[in-house]
Design goal:
The complex is a heterodimer of chains A (328) and B (678). Helix content of chain A is 28%, strand content 28%. Chain A has 328 residues and is α+β, with helices and mostly antiparallel strands. Helix content of chain B is 49%, strand content 12%. Chain B folds into 4 domains: 177 residues; 294 residues, no CATH class; 44 residues; 88 residues, no CATH class. The chains are: A alpha+beta (328), B alpha+beta (678).
Chain lengths: 328, 678
């Protein structure tokens, strides 16, 4: 690490008042809000100097007054800008897991306890990250607002939100106030599903569980409201045709009769590496979930087996297992 | 909880390069109008017209939402405007052409404004133009107009950076910020170490178009002045005259003394500097302070005859006070005068000779009359003077503001033919006759009288009080003031011009008796203007030292002032910061109650997630409750409804209080039985 980088790192550590990540809610106290003039602020100051020289030269008493008024305006701008950021609270918002190569969306909740709104607060991620759009929000008085910061993902596992910069130049654009925060916010990144994968295994699992059953033997168990993830062939089309403007319904089948399959790490060709295996398993889990199948997952190591199920919770715990898989 | 607005489409563009929206352009345009309007009367008419046209053009483009014209067209207009300025002023440098260029640039910048950076340039130009307003006038009215322009420009600056701000809010914010800037302005104004300008040579046109007495007098020059209501100077009497000023008839404010005559025009001669006072003082002095308006000449006006010489000035041998530098700024000096003292008993022969000079050849009839009087009355100079005043009285002379034009032998024509004139005619005729009779004499110009402002007791002397009288030298008695106008129109000296003029003469508006109430208004306004002039416009290094020593600062020099300024600004800034942070981070009571619900349910693992809205939260609770908790679920849902109405719905304050009451009660009474364990 170069000297400058070391220095910068030390600065950020100092600026964040201890080690990142910080416990939420992070409050931007006045000691961690920094204020400096923007380039426009400098131009403004130089203009005032020129005007002052003019006022002196022509003995313009009101010229003095105007220059001093504008200087006072610049000074109050410092306070207003500072105030716009100071004592803002940062807490955690909703952060949904994503597959690698997708954009992770970090939810950050900004809370304004003041009786006045805080306009034009910009959030950004460190500059060295891939080109980031700035997000600008207004936090209304006595309210919270959720901001989503998006970050591209490359690999599975926990992705920690990097240090964020909050800044504002409200109201005159002459002064910039900014602060750093590193709230403890992580996003779980599932392994990206393999683009090319072997078909779902159709052999019975090791414990001799149910194989794919013939279509006629499914036990119809009832109807429920259609959800987008339901496979199309389970839609109750006949019911839908009877009531043309009603909601779509999905046919449910009793569990024992549903297909159960085991997605097994060891069933994969030995030529595949760890990440490739995880990618294939991820693809299988997605496919199985999309087709409404029940599946079980088996990974090497302790705690590597999840009993067959077909619901959303199971889908996410399987993927989490894959995301955090560490070979012993 | 509200979701952040969807991203702006232009968020990848640097903020300064963002194109201006219609609203931003409109605001900049409005602020430009507010800045330009008070400046327009002071620009050449064609330039004001051109700038108005350009502004109108911009207005039409804004209104119809049309695209801006091409740069080439603007460059053409710019070049045309610049050549116009060059033709008008014969230069592009200097104060007035500079301001004219700034006006042109400002108007055209509005047509060339494409992005935020251009908008910022326009805002700065607007501030500069507001300052340049003060080159032309610093009156209270224009100061208020300029302040309005500055407020509009500041609001435009807010909109420029934060265009989603509602206009009313931006304007209010600009007003609040300017109000908060006022304490800083006052501190800086009083304590910033003042420097007497100019810092470098001023352009020649720095002071043009001023009215006042000049160094020569031709027929008509003073009657022209008398039409002007402008204030020449103000006097504050002190001592025994503080309550009751000296009588109007003794208020002769001595100005330029004209001894040289070329047949038509009276001129000053280069004065000798007098060493000390050339006369001995006797009698009671009159003490007073004069606040002289800048007139860009050297004269300082004082009652006859001055006994003190203000700093940086001299007393000339003909008893006029001269400032070493032209009076460029409003000047204040303390004076003591002794009316009616004898001066010049042993006047230098060279001066007496000069005061007998008459151009040969002109005005034969007047010369003949004077010679006849001399032959008749012998060596009695006083008798000749009386004869001349009698001549003015006996013949039908008319005191008028609009005398007929006079030809080659102006004195002859006035004395024998037209017999109509103003004070310059009467004094010139008198002095001519005296000289023709061999009595040394000269014309003295200055002001006569003045009016007391009943509001603050100051004496206001206006240009319309300009006057010319005469001085003759008598052996053994020295210089004697003779006012020939008093012989014709005594009321001019005793009262004022308005009374002295015959009925039917067109008087200056304010001098008309019908406008009594207007007169009263003007007194008040004048008193206010006087305070403004003395303390705001006349606040110079000297005044600053005076004020600061009066406030208890010993030997106020610039180091002390700077220290004081820094300390006080620091204190002010700290005060403001403390006020900024003091505003308690108080929770909205509704939110506090809502949080209490969350804490209550947190024991059962149902704390509200930070991003959860009221209805979502209620639904989650309902879903988590077992079947027999439906009553509880309904209750929670109702509470959520109350909270949502309280936070987000339109309601009056009475309704809000009632809702809040109910919310608190219901949350307090919410009972959770163990059977509800999810």
């Amino acid at each position: 690490m170069s000297f400058a980088a070391t220095l910068q790192e030390r600065f950020f550590r100092w600026a964040l008042r201890g080690h990142a990540p910080e416990a939420v809610p992070v409050i931007l106290t006045q000691r961690r809000v920094y204020v400096l003039p923007t380039r426009q602020g400098l131009v403004y100051a130089v203009s005032l100097l020129v005007m002052l020289v003019g006022a002196i030269n022509y003995n313009l008493s009101l010229g003095y007054a105007l220059v001093f008024l504008l200087a006072g305006l610049g000074t109050t701008a410092i306070l207003h800008t500072f105030r716009n950021l100071a004592h803002l609270r940062i807490s955690l918002g909703r952060t949904e897991p994503v597959f690698a190569l997708e954009h992770a969306g970090f939810g950050i909740v900004l809370t304004n306890l003041r009786n006045e709104s805080r306009p034009a607060i910009r959030l950004s991620l460190p500059k060295h990250l891939p080109k980031q759009p700035q997000v600008e929000v207004e936090v209304p008085a006595q309210a919270s607002i959720e901001v989503r910061l998006e970050l591209p993902t490359t690999q599975r596992g926990w992705l920690t939100l990097p240090r964020i910069t909050l800044e504002t130049n409200y109201p005159l654009g002459l002064i910039r106030a900014w602060s750093y925060a590193a709230p403890d916010l992580r996003c779980l990144v599932y392994p990206a599903p393999a683009a090319v994968a072997p078909p779902l295994p159709s052999t019975p699992g090791a414990d001799g569980g149910a194989t794919r059953l013939a279509a006629g033997m499914e036990d119809f168990a009832g109807l429920r409201g259609h959800q987008p993830a339901d496979p199309p062939r389970h839609v109750a089309w006949k019911a839908a045709a009877r009531q043309d403007d009603g909601p779509l319904l999905t046919k449910l089948f009793s569990g024992a009769a549903a297909q159960t399959l085991w997605l097994d790490w060891n069933s994969l060709p030995a030529t595949l590496g760890i990440e490739e295996r995880l990618a294939v398993l991820s693809r299988w889990i997605c496919d199985a979930h999309a087709s409404g199948l029940a599946w079980g997952l088996r990974l090497p190591g302790p705690g590597g087996e999840l009993a067959p199920a077909a619901d959303d919770a199971h889908f996410h715990s399987c993927l989490k297992l894959l995301a955090l898989y560490a070979p012993s | 909880m509200r979701q952040a607005d969807s991203a702006q489409p232009d968020r990848h563009i640097k903020p300064l390069a963002r194109p201006l929206s219609a609203r931003q352009s409109l605001w900049l345009y409005g602020s430009a109008l507010a800045v330009f309007a008070p400046l327009a009367p002071y620009q050449p008419e064609w330039l004001s017209a051109l700038a108005s046209l350009v502004l109108l053009w911009r207005g039409v483009l804004l209104w119809r939402g049309l695209a801006l014209p091409s740069r080439w067209l603007l460059i053409l207009v710019m070049l045309a405007g610049m050549s116009g300025i060059l033709l008008h002023f014969h230069t592009l440098f200097g104060r007035n052409p500079g301001v004219a260029l700034l006006v042109l640039l400002f108007a055209l910048k509005l047509l060339e404004m494409r992005n935020v950076r251009d908008g910022f340039a326009a805002v700065l130009l607007g501030y500069f133009l507001s300052l340049s307003q003060f080159f032309f006038t610093q009156s209270i009215g224009y100061a208020v107009l300029t302040l309005a322009g500055v407020t509009a420009t500041t609001a435009a600056l807010v909109i420029l950076h934060h265009q989603r701000q509602p206009p009313a809010r931006a304007l209010r914010l600009a007003g609040v910020m300017l109000l908060q800037a006022v304490p800083f302005m006052l501190l800086l104004f009083v304590l910033f170490p003042r420097v007497q300008g100019p810092l470098w040579g001023l352009p020649i046109d720095a002071f043009s178009g001023q009215t006042g007495l000049s160094d020569s007098m031709a027929p008509g020059s003073i009657s022209q002045l008398s039409q002007s209501d402008a204030i020449a100077f103000r006097v504050k009497f002190s001592g025994e005259f503080a309550a009751k000023p000296p009588p109007q008839t003794s208020l002769y404010w001595r100005g330029p003394v004209l001894s040289q005559f070329d047949g038509r025009t009276w001129k000053i001669v280069q004065p000798y500097v007098s060493n000390g006072l050339p006369y001995t003082l006797s009698g009671t002095p009159v003490e007073y302070t004069v606040t002289l308006e800048p007139h860009y000449k050297h004269w300082l006006f004082a009652l006859e005859l001055p006994a003190t010489i203000p700093p940086d000035s001299i007393l000339a041998s003909d008893y006029e006070l001269l400032s070493k530098a032209p009076v460029r700024a409003r000047q204040r000096y303390e004076m003591r005068s002794y009316p009616g003292i004898v001066a010049g008993v042993d006047e230098a022969p060279a001066i007496l000779r000069a005061d007998l000079q008459l151009p040969p050849g002109y005005n034969p009839r007047a010369r003949a009359l004077a010679a006849a009087w001399r032959a008749e009355l012998g060596a009695d100079d006083v008798a000749i003077m009386r004869r001349m005043l009698d001549y003015y009285r006996r013949q039908v002379f008319i005191y008028t503001l609009s005398p007929p034009l006079l030809g080659e032998d102006s004195i002859d024509e006035f004395l024998f033919d037209s017999k109509r004139g103003f004070c310059e005619h009467f004094s010139a005729g008198f002095v001519f006759m005296m000289r023709a009779a061999g009595i040394p004499s000269r014309v003295v110009t200055g002001y006569q009288g003045g009016e007391i402002n009943p509001v603050d007791g100051t004496l206001i002397v206006r240009q319309s009080d300009a006057h010319a009288w005469a001085e003759i030298w008598l052996k053994g008695r020295g210089w004697l003031r003779v006012d020939p106008t008093a012989a014709i129109a005594p009321t001019r000296i005793e009262m004022n011009l308005a009374v002295a003029l015959p009925a039917g003469e067109v008087r200056p508006l304010m001098e008309r008796p019908a406008f009594k109430w207007l007169h009263q208004m003007r007194y008040r306004w004048d008193a206010l203007t006087n305070v403004w002039n003395q303390w705001v416009l006349g606040y110079n290094p000297q005044r600053q030292r005076e004020l600061l020593s009066r406030l208890g600062m010993r030997s106020p020099d610039w180091q002390q002032m700077t220290t004081m300024l820094t300390v006080m600004c620091g204190v002010l800034l700290l005060g403001f910061t403390a006020w900024t942070l003091r505003q308690r981070q108080r929770l909205d009571p509704a939110l506090a109650a809502w949080n209490r619900l969350s804490r209550k349910l947190a024991r059962h693992g149902l704390a509200r997630r930070p991003w959860e809205g009221p209805y979502d939260y209620a639904e989650r609770i309902a879903a988590a409750l077992p079947a027999d908790g439906s009553a509880l679920a309904a209750e929670v849902q109702e509470i959520a409804g109350i909270y949502a109405r309280l936070r987000y719905a339109e309601r009056t304050s009475a309704q809000a209080a009632q809702l809040l009451q109910e919310l608190k009660k219901r949350i307090a009474q919410l009972a959770w039985r163990d059977s509800h364990k999810p």
